[in-house]
Write a structure and sequence with these properties.
Blueprint (H helix, E strand, L loop, with lengths): L1 H42 L1 H4 L2 E3 L4 E3 L24 E6 L5 E5 L2 E5 L4 E4 L11 E6 L5 E5 L2 E5 L3 E5 L10 E6 L5 E5 L2 E5 L4 E4 L18 E6 L5 E5 L2 E5 L4 E4 L10 E6 L5 E5 L4 E4 L4 E3 L11 E6 L5 E5 L3 E5 L4 E4 L10 E6 L5 E5 L2 E6 L2 E5 L6
Antiparallel strand pairs: 1-10, 2-6, 3-4, 4-5, 5-6, 7-8, 8-9, 9-10, 11-12, 12-13, 13-14, 15-16, 16-17, 17-18, 19-20, 20-21, 21-22, 23-24, 24-25, 25-26, 27-28, 28-29, 29-30
């Protein structure tokens, strides 16, 4: 009896071992498949990325409370689009997009809606740049990577997908459809399948700014020759597809801390700098714009040429100027007891000038500025 019991017990033990072995095989196979999918998403982000239906996260403006004034930084007033509008763009379908401190909003000609795009931790993101590619996709740069909008879905890309930094400051698309991203940690491109870093030289961080680094790229511009201009704390860098050429104060640039570069209709390149005003390069020499009201340490944040050939720029955010090639005119937006601060100057398809920044969005109508709230006037 004893030997039969031992034999039977051995059979039971063997059975248990077989069951455990099968369980481990199944468990290991499931885990292995899961890890493989994660790797695949990283290697091929455009094929495996999660799409977010835009309609599912849209909120009509009338369903949101007003942005209340912060007593410390005075970000907002009244029923603005946002207390801080960082950037705007009008797309090919004439929709207006606003990148704000509170996320993303769109006016489609009938209503203003907000999109509840959040980062991985569920917090609101700050939109800093918006660009449209040649096929009509929108590319949105923000404080947690970049987001593509194809007209129906939002698709997010972060460092997990190969982006060099989630802190994105500028974004543009070139004539070939490649997306170029400027971040706190340098520049990279995205061809729809992979991110490729562009090795720009390290620069000096700007201690006067709240956020800075030795690799930050403030702005990216493609000129009429197809060259890319990168605005950094070490001057401007030109990339022709093969080589990188730097321009700095040693070459005649008014200041190495470049916020933005713009090409005008004559082919001149304008440089908005953080510490020594505005200047332009005509292919031969650099010419500063002399303004008696300016201190030497004046900061120019945004510069554009409008459809009439007039150069517009802001000085220390709150002062606005226009330059017709001969005369300089100062403009003031007066709202309440202080003027709004301008982050971006933008001309829409109706040739109207917008000024967005602290305290919302404003538009120049004739000789006066109009406060554009959630209800317009559009």
């Amino acid at each position: 009896m004893k030997s039969k019991f031992i034999k039977k017990g051995n059979q039971i033990v063997k059975g248990i071992h077989i069951i455990l072995l099968l369980f481990l095989i199944v468990f290991t196979s499931c885990n292995g498949q899961k890890k493989e999918n994660i790797v695949t998403k990283k290697a091929f982000p455009n094929k495996e990325k999660i799409k977010i239906l835009a309609d599912s996260i849209s909120i009509p403006a009338e369903n949101l409370p007003e942005f209340k004034t912060d007593p410390h930084i005075k970000e907002s007033q009244g029923n603005q689009i946002s207390g801080v509008v960082r950037t705007m763009l009008q797309d090919k379908n004439k929709n207006f997009w606003f990148g704000t401190q509170n996320g993303l909003s769109r006016y489609d000609g009938q209503s203003l809606v907000y999109f509840d795009i959040k980062n991985l931790n569920g917090k609101n993101i700050t939109i800093k740049a918006i660009a449209e590619d040649k096929t009509g996709n929108l590319w949105i740069g923000h404080s947690d990577g970049i987001t593509k909008y194809d007209g129906t879905y939002f698709i997010n890309y972060t460092e997990n997908d190969g982006l060099i930094s989630n802190d994105v400051w500028s974004i543009t698309t070139d004539r070939n459809g490649t997306v170029w991203i400027g971040t706190l940690q340098g520049a990279c491109s995205f061809d729809g399948e992979k991110f490729s870093a562009l090795a720009l030289p390290k620069v000096k961080p700007d201690p006067t700014r709240g956020v800075t680094s030795d690799k930050i790229v403030h702005n990216i511009m493609e000129d009429s020759q197809g060259q890319l201009w990168f605005s950094t704390n070490g001057g401007a860098y030109i990339y022709n597809g093969n080589t990188i050429t730097g321009i700095s104060e040693k070459d005649g640039l008014c200041n190495d801390y470049v916020n933005q570069t713009v090409e005008d209709s004559k082919g001149n390149i304008w440089f908005a700098t953080a510490h020594n005003g505005l200047c332009y390069y005509n292919g031969t020499k650099y010419t500063p714009i002399e303004i008696s009201l300016f201190d030497k340490d004046i900061s120019i944040g945004s510069v554009i040429e409008d459809s009439k050939g007039i150069i517009w720029f802001n000085a220390d955010k709150r002062n606005l100027y226009s330059y017709n090639g001969k005369e300089l005119t100062k403009h003031t937006i007066e709202i309440g007891d202080s003027s709004p601060g301008t982050f971006q100057i933008y001309e829409d398809q109706q040739q109207r000038l917008w000024f967005v920044g602290f305290k919302g969005a404003y538009r120049l109508d004739g000789n006066s500025f109009v406060n554009i709230t959630r209800k317009g006037p559009w």
